[in-house]
Design goal:
- The chain is of the alpha+beta class.
- Helix content is about 20%, strand content about 30%.
- It is built from four helices and ten strands, in the order H-E-H-E-E-E-H-E-E-E-E-E-E-H.
- Strands 1, 2, 3, 4, 5, 6, 7, 8, 9 and 10 form a ten-stranded antiparallel sheet that branches.
- Strand 8 and strand 9 form a beta hairpin.
- It is globular.
- The chain starts with a helix and ends with a helix.
- The C terminus is likely disordered.
Length: about 290
């Protein structure tokens, strides 16, 4: 019984250390968040619920054997991709603040026949998350690497469009980590309703945070490079508090890369496509 009490006390101390670490990082990141929003008048926050029958946030370690295994929670990069599917322009960059886990974490394995690189089919087992729902809070900031698109920095229009796209379920198809995992988006209030893990703290160990591409690099040494980020994922009272990409401690430069160039009215329309009430010049095309 004495050893049991010691283990319980040790676990509680570890939980307190995790909570203190998360609080410290959040406080330290406030100044950085202020810098990202210093040229904005509003917080530009959106909240939405994304759900689906299956999700596959693949652990990269499981890819080498050809049998994919999902993380227990979504990665920052996956949620950013979902948010960009709702609405995105290269003028802005989305920052994922928090993710709330609403449903129990359950897995289901399926036999898959993927196509081999040299032709034919193979047999693999993919392990998916089943019956998932996440509530996401995110905000956008100006992409400071896109000074060539400074003329497109109209936060009211970007925010209004983003809110409308949340109401409509997104501009593009929503996927929960993989193409075969269809997702659905609805507007919600982040803290409303009861979640399965509202009073639970969990540690998921070191996992992928995301990839920093050259057009969104913040650190000077990562400009013009592609960088992978890892972090020690923690859930406190059912909520995952994500650090900003530049705050991740574990990171590795993969290779040199160039950011895509956008030229106004050549390969980039900006907000002009929404002005005048006609979407994609439909009024002009159809009279």
């Amino acid at each position: 019984m004495g050893n049991t009490h010691i283990l319980a006390d040790t676990f509680q101390i570890e939980i307190l250390h995790v909570q203190l670490e998360i609080f410290t990082k959040r406080e330290a990141g406030k100044e950085k968040r202020k810098k990202g929003r210093e040229n904005m008048d509003k917080p530009n926050i959106i909240e939405y619920s994304v759900f689906g029958r299956y999700a596959l946030f693949t652990d990269p370690l499981s890819k080498t054997g050809g049998e994919k295994f999902s993380y227990q929670i979504p990665t920052y990069q996956a949620l950013k991709g979902i948010t960009e599917s709702i609405y995105w322009k290269p003028t802005i960059t989305w920052i994922i603040d928090e993710c709330r886990i609403m449903n129990p974490i359950q897995t289901e394995s399926k036999g898959i026949r993927p196509i081999k690189y040299n032709g034919g089919n193979d047999l693999s087992y993919y392990t998916y998350l089943r019956n998932v729902e996440y509530r996401v809070k995110a905000h956008f900031e100006w992409n400071e690497n896109r000074q060539d698109l400074a003329h497109d920095r109209n936060e009211n229009k970007h925010y209004d469009i983003a809110k409308r796209m949340v109401d409509r379920g997104g501009r593009r198809d929503i996927f929960l980590g993989a193409r075969e995992c269809q997702g659905y988006v609805e507007p919600c209030s982040f803290h409303e309703g009861n979640g399965t893990y509202d009073n639970t703290n969990l540690s998921f160990g070191v996992m992928l945070h995301g990839i920093t591409y050259p057009d969104e690099a913040v650190r000077k040494e990562e400009k013009g490079k592609m960088t992978v980020r890892l972090w020690n994922a923690q859930m406190v009272n059912g909520v995952i508090h994500f650090p900003r990409p530049e705050e991740c401690v574990i990171r590795h430069v993969l290779r040199d890369a160039k950011q895509k160039q956008f030229v106004f009215e050549e390969n980039f329309a900006g907000l002009k496509e929404f002005e005048g009430g006609d979407l994609f010049d439909m009024v002009k095309d159809f009279g």
